[in-house]
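Troubleshooting: if your tokenizer reports a length mismatch, compare your output against this known-good record of 423 residues.
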Amino acid sequence: MNILHISALPVWPLAGKGGMPSLAETLRGHVRAGHEITLVLPKHPPLGIADEVTQIPPDTGYAVHHAEFAWVPYLKAFRRSCHRLLGAELPFLLRWVLNLLTCLMVTVSLVVAGLHVRCRRRKRFDLVYAHNQYAAPAGLLLRLMFGLPNVTRLYGTFLAELMSRRWVWLRYPVAAAGYLVPHSLLICGNDGTWGDRVAEKLGIDLGRFRFWQNGVDMPAAPPKATRASLRKTAPENLRPDSTWVVSCSRLSYWKRIDRLIRAVHAARDAGADCQLIVAGDGPERLRLARLADELGVGDEIVWLGAVAHDEIWAWMNVADVFIIANDVTNRCNPLYEAICAHLPVVSVRHPSTADLLSDGDNALLAEPDDVRRLGEHLAAIARDGALQKRLRRAQQSVAESFWTWEERMNCEVRELESLVAAG
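Known-good structure output:
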């Protein structure tokens, strides 16, 4: 097949760091299956994920074309002006208009770029694959223009808890568009945000709906990094004999790194020497650093910034604990990878991970805002080597239940080939 991928999201790795690992693995899976991939990306991402021009390594195996998105700086300037005039939280109606306007402009830009690739570069495609709800309308338009099947890929949703409200599709039209825009196949990630419930409530044809968990791959060989080697490249405040508690996420508010910082503070109060190693960057970095200083645990927080994905395995291989306490869902690739690395997990009780984390078996759990309890769990693991070993052993059976990325993508490729064959 010759597949046209369109996305307003960045792809991991961009210059080796950040971006969307699951999006990158999708592209790799299609290439691995022998299909030709053309990817259209925005030159300036519009969704607040990155401001730099996107850069793709040369050895990806697919062609990349940049949509100009020349309107992005003006829209961002307008948003900043609105925030200065109206405060940090914009009125709902204004946010509604801005999100709809962004989606409209993304649609126009991606369609123009798709037409350019098709007409000017004489590319013919068998399938158009739209990543995220912002690209879904463009995927439909290109389907109609080219006479092709279209696939929409969603990476989670926030709509599940709002579905009891009336006119939810009108209140959140962009989020709903990922489901409601006509598609030949809709693939939704099983990331704990209950995208399957949203599809059912919105009346989506479940025969054209696939609800799949991401794959996860261990390195071909165990990472060779040691604590000593990682300390050479880590910030100076990383101590070799402390209990290393690793976190891996973008520093956005809903990731609730503030809970983790408060948990480390509570662990210190309980007499444990724990350091939180934060792999990731984002808009909350300065606020979180101030919080750590205010609590007097600035030296206990090790900020790695954006870290190349392969390096995450090295950190998980030598860390003592993995911690995650997100608001919306904790079912995500970093958790899968921590389980595969047989790390004890400290987390919050949440339905999204009820089948993955068992309190006292392979994890120690607390209520979402009980940061003192989270800290006590960290202290218990730091003091009790036997407990840490028992939690590690219990991870093996959970890890064996996961798809590898190759298995996950083989399943998807078969679906796409059947879709194209059916014509």
